[in-house]
Design brief:
- Helix content is 67%, strand content 3%.
- The protein is mainly α.
- It has one domain.
- It is found in: Cell membrane.
């Protein structure tokens, strides 16, 4: 048993970290292992690999991801800001390298191979960007004379421009939504809300006019007869086949023909084998993680911790919502992983980094430890 009297870094972490939030994240990770085992063997077999190729790699990526998650949760808010700056700078450099040197796949350049590892740098850029934007908004609130909001807009334009050049419009829309949400939490004026909504709508319309694959996805969503909707149709059949309690582990039919059953459509595979009950459980688990983090964030008197934890929770929640909505044919198809459930090394490690920062920012700390609050005699609060 760990005593409260101990003053080791681990004991301080143990008594300040949100254990319910940590437990929910661990349950989600274990659920990802089970669903990867259910969904990935048919995909590996179809392309001539060992049946457990993707499952083994999923577990292999899970181990360093969990280490990253725990290690980052030990950091202080100041260390989180510094790490985010470093990670963001490296990610931007890798995105530029990807645009210049990365292979073109289906008209996009999103991956670069380094030391035998395929890296999608936009994944690591997302949580780091959210933290930097939150820091700039908090500085703008504390020091109005500082052009922090303009700097946040500049960072947004830089990242979005690079993502559009790949092109990756799904990640672009995700970044815009999260940035707008953090800006709103920071006290954005209504004119900014209208302006951002107008820009987003204009950007989507421009993509529809000038980017063929974006137009194709929207047309297929609006009128399924206008193109190939095999994957989303098969996913919907999986939900229908599974019913409330599923066909049973290993009995799924859709995964035998779904090309992306282990990534974009793992949610549908889970629905077919384990039923809608599992889908509702996953939905509640994601909702709990987001709401719990937002609740802890709003208990913080440190603006940076409040904005950053809220932004990371919203990023996590919107990404999960997009994946599930695509599986249910509620929005046009978009390649977006389901956090800790879908296969993908870059995504999993980046999610672990973001969730680790969520845990760190929602730890219970005395105000004396918080850089932006100087009252050392105050009672403990969330930071």
């Amino acid at each position: 048993m760990i005593s409260r009297e101990q003053r080791t870094p681990f004991s301080e972490w143990w008594w300040t970290v949100d254990k319910l939030l940590l437990a929910a994240i661990i349950v989600l990770m274990l659920g990802g292992v089970i669903l990867s085992l259910a969904a990935s063997p048919p995909v590996a077999t179809r392309i001539g690999l060992d049946p457990f190729h993707f499952f083994n790699r999923h577990v292999l990526f899970l181990l360093p991801s969990f280490i990253v998650l725990i290690a980052v949760s030990f950091l202080s808010p100041r260390q989180i800001r510094r790490s985010a700056l470093i990670v963001f700078a490296i990610s931007i450099a890798l995105i530029v390298a990807t645009l210049l040197l990365g292979p073109e796949v289906k008209g996009s350049r999103r991956w670069i191979t380094i030391l035998g590892l395929n890296i999608q740098a936009s994944e690591s850029a997302k949580p780091a960007f959210v933290v930097l934007a939150a820091w700039l908004f908090s500085e703008s609130a504390r020091r109005p004379e500082m052009p922090a909001t303009s700097m946040a807009v500049t960072l947004l334009i830089m990242l979005v421009s690079l993502l559009v050049m790949e092109p990756d419009f799904g990640q672009t829309m995700l970044i815009l939504m999260v940035w707008g949400a953090v800006f709103f939490i920071a006290g954005m004026r209504i004119v900014w809300v209208m302006g951002l909504a107008g820009l987003a709508a204009g950007g989507l319309f421009a993509a529809y006019l000038f980017v063929p694959h974006v137009a194709g996805r929207i047309k297929r969503f609006m009128n399924p007869a206008s193109g190939d909707t095999y994957q989303v149709d098969t996913a919907m059949e999986a939900f229908s086949n599974g019913g409330w309690f599923g066909l049973g582990p290993g009995e799924g039919i859709a995964k035998r023909s779904l090309p992306d059953s282990h990534t974009d459509f793992v949610f549908a595979v889970g629905a077919e084998e384990f039923g809608i009950i599992l889908c509702l459980a996953l939905l509640l688990l994601f909702a709990f993680i987001v709401i719990r983090t937002l609740s802890r964030a709003y208990s913080s008197e440190d603006l940076f911790s409040r904005f950053a934890a809220s932004g990371l929770a919203i990023l996590f929640g919107i990404q999960a919502a997009i994946n599930m909505a695509v599986n249910l044919q509620l929005i046009p198809a978009k390649g977006m992983t389901l956090p800790f459930i879908s296969y993908g090394g870059s995504s999993m490690i980046s999610l672990a980094y973001g969730v680790g920062m969520m845990l760190a920012l929602t730890r219970l700390r005395p105000r004396v430890e918080m850089e932006s609050i100087g009252d050392a005699t105050a009672a403990p609060t969330y930071a």
